[in-house]
Amino acid sequence: MNTVFIKNMVCNRCIMVVQNELDKLGLEVKNIKLGEVNLDKELTSEQKDKLDNALIPLGFEVIDDKKSRIIEKIKNIIIDLVHYQNNDSKINLSEVLSNQLHHDYNYLSNLFSEVEGTTIEKYFIAQKIEKVKELLVYDELSLSEIASRLNYSSVAYLSNQFKKVTGLTPSHFKQIKEDKRKPLDRV
Asked: Residue 121: which H helix or E strand, with range?
């Protein structure tokens, strides 16, 4: 079995798009998840080139070097934790990353900062704020429930972090989004 690492896979739709391209190329997929595809057979260089040519216009890219693979895995673990896991318990991000990637957290942190120009923590916070925005727009949960779901110690802490990242309070952000929605009869 051969594992191919793919950059910029961030959601289930990405998985479907990549799966579709692999099917078009006649490549048999054993398993596909964010950033990673397990194929039945080793890719030939011609197949790899065809795959690259098919994926690049769609915003994806086959990753060849080890450091880029690690960075992409860090991002995918964080995206999965924030957007797809409903964590009721407090998680220790450094432990999760170290355990899943089998590297010392300091190595992962330094590599991430060096390549991405930001820290793992800032990336994690940015993903959490994106999730908060999404939940605010859906308007199904109170700010207190959102804070709890994303493991913030308090609504005040969530609000402060949200304002620091976006420049807006959560309620102002929500108001702006609601103002932009047009009634159906005005579309």
From this structure: helix 120-138
Give me the CATH topology for the region 66-187.
Arc Repressor Mutant, subunit A (1.10.10)
In the chain, where the domains are located: 1-64, 66-187
CATH architecture for segment(s) 1-64? 2-Layer Sandwich (3.30)
DSSP single-letter state for residue 91: -
Cα-Cα-Cα-Cα torsion 86, 71, 15, 136, nearest 10 degrees, comes to: 40
Distance CA 101, CA 12 (A): 22
Question: What type of residue sits at position 54?
Answer: A
Residues ≥6 apart with Cβ < 8 Å to 123: 74, 75, 78, 112, 116
Q: Which two tokens stand for residue 117?
A: 């120009």
CA–CA gap between residue 30 and residue 47 (Å, rounded): 17
What pLDDT digit, counting tens, does each position of 62-98 carry?
Answer: 888 888 889 999 999 999 888 887 665 567 899 999 9
Question: In the structure encoding, which two tokens stand for residue 154, read together?
Answer: 């308090």
User: pTM of the prediction?
Assistant: 0.73
Weakest mean pLDDT among 51-55, 128-132, 155-159, 175-179? 175-179
pLDDT given at position 34: 87
Q: In whole angstroms, what is the distance from residue 112 CA to residue 116 CA?
A: 6
